[in-house]
Amino acid sequence: MAYQDRKKVAAALKPIYTAASEDSAWAALVEFETSELGQKYPSTVMTWKNSWDRFVPFLQFPPMLRKVIYTTNAIESLNYQLRKVTKNRGHFPSTDAAVKLLWLAICNIEDKRAADRARDRGKPANERKAQGRLVEGQVVTNWKQALAQLAAAYPDRITPYL
């Protein structure tokens, strides 16, 4: 996909993952498929169609919770950075050694972000470039409502940790 079309394609795909039901999401996908961007990027349409069975359970979540899921990349970012640290290490002499390396990596990642946040402190929001907290708790819009919806949907998994 051409770089200049990424934002347009993302905007055109948004009605699919924000749809209220599976039927309306499918209708939005068909609409994207027949659009100019859908014709230009048929591989995107095929990816959605091939992954549809894995996507549909996402639509079972309430809209507030869905938004938290599709806008929060902290976990993916942390996993990427931890994989980068462990990738070239081969094997570890013990599980304890691996855990220590991961802990030090997490501390290093958070220290870098804390320094960036300190540098941006006092600047207007639109001028800040530092990422949010990674380990201590990423700032997520409407997190309390989403957490309440998670606790209602999965009381045995969420409630013990609240």
From TrEMBL:
Example GO molecular function term? DNA binding
The biological processes this protein is annotated with in GO are: DNA transposition
Pfam families (alphabetical): Transposase_mut
Q: Which UniProt keywords apply?
A: DNA recombination, DNA-binding, Transposable element, Transposition
Q: What does this protein do?
A: Required for the transposition of the insertion element.
Task: Return the PANTHER family for the record.
Answer: MUTATOR FAMILY TRANSPOSASE (PTHR33217:SF8), TRANSPOSASE FOR INSERTION SEQUENCE ELEMENT IS1081 (PTHR33217)
**Of which family is this protein a member?**
Belongs to the transposase mutator family.
Q: What is the designated name of this protein?
A: Mutator family transposase
